[in-house]
Design brief:
Number of helices: 10
Order of helices and strands: HHHHHHHHHH
Helix content: over 70%
Shape: elongated
Distance between the termini: 27 Å
Length: 243
């Protein structure tokens, strides 16, 4: 597999994303709203004299939210990157290019993965700075950065993004509408929301062991979906079954 061919495919999608205002709004505005809005909520919590343990629990729960955000953002980009080609009937000409199936799939993965991860990393810095600013007097020290957020951003977030992209490949082979693909993808992150609610209600804690378990589960699901998506994203499958 020649990586430069995958990069050419990815850069083509990057140029398309820049022209789609809806994609840009989703990609940039949503993470910014979350990264500014969550510290505002925490600020209100500190003003009503909540125990320090509850503030810390909320900070951890909000940190986990970036795993969910990675899934949502990647699903949006992958739906346009893959399903958009199908809708505009430009997928078949793309298949005629001198690239392998693996190079095409990897290029589409890069196009969805890199913008998502870049925006999440940038917005998480805003979240950490603002959260530290509003909690320093209450907690007595800078809560971020810490080992948990590092684990989330460097391991769980990329795994969540890859999971979402591979699911989008599978969904794109069966539907013909971006909105439908996004809705189906949204249903599949319900388990992420379930874990988030358990964190907010203090049923479970966001410690390294739990994060490791979450990452292992994501990795195993990614491994299974990798083989499924690779089998689906083949020229013969696309030309005969992606209708």
């Amino acid at each position: 597999m020649k990586l430069w061919k995958s990069w050419v495919i990815a850069t083509k999608d990057f140029s398309i994303f820049r022209k789609k205002k809806r994609i840009l709004y989703t990609l940039i505005i949503l993470p910014l709203l979350i990264s500014i809005g969550l510290p505002i909520i925490i600020s209100f919590m500190t003003q009503i004299d909540n125990p320090t343990t509850e503030i810390i629990s909320l900070l951890n729960a909000f940190s986990y939210f970036y795993i969910i955000l990675a899934f949502i953002q990647s699903s949006t980009l992958a739906s346009y990157s893959i399903l958009g080609e199908k809708i505009e009937q430009s997928l078949e000409p793309l298949l005629a290019t001198p690239t392998t199936d693996s190079e095409l799939l990897f290029g589409k993965t890069i196009a969805s993965f890199l913008p998502c991860i870049g925006v999440i990393y940038a917005s998480s810095i805003i979240f950490m700075i603002l959260s530290d600013a509003v909690t320093y007097n209450t907690i007595g020290y800078l809560f971020f950065p810490n080992l948990s957020i590092a684990f989330i951003l460097l391991l769980a977030v990329p795994l969540s993004s890859i999971l979402s992209i591979q699911l989008s490949v599978i969904i794109s082979s069966r539907v013909n509408d971006v909105r439908t693909a996004n809705q189906l993808g949204s249903l599949l992150f319900i388990p992420f929301i379930g874990v988030y609610l358990l964190l907010v209600t203090n049923v479970i804690s966001l410690n390294i062991i739990n994060l490791f378990v979450i990452s292992i589960v994501l990795f195993l699901i990614d491994a299974v979906l990798f083989y499924i998506s690779k089998a689906i994203f083949r020229r013969d499958e696309i030309l005969t079954k992606w209708k």
